[in-house]
Amino acid sequence: MTDAGATKTGQPKTRALGKTGLQVSPLGVGTNKWSQGSNDEAVFETFQTFQNAGISFFDTAEVYGFGKSERLIGDCLRRDGRPATIATKFAPFIARSSSRHLLKALDASLARLGVNTIDLYYIHFPYPFADFNELADAMIEAVKAGKVRHVGVSNFSATQMRRVADRLSRSNIPLVANEVHYSLLARKPESNGVLDACRELGASLIAYFPLARGRLTRPPAQGKTGRLETLQKTLTDIAQAHRASPSQVALNWLLARDPCIIPIPGASIAKNAKQNIAALDWSLTGDEFAAIDAVSASWR
Ligand SMILES: NC(=O)c1ccc[n+]([C@@H]2O[C@H](COP(=O)([O-])OP(=O)(O)OC[C@H]3O[C@@H](n4cnc5c(N)ncnc54)[C@H](OP(=O)(O)O)[C@@H]3O)[C@@H](O)[C@H]2O)c1
Question: For a Cys staple, 235 with which of 66, 110, 123, 246, CB 3.0–4.6 Å?
Answer without folding.
Answer: 246
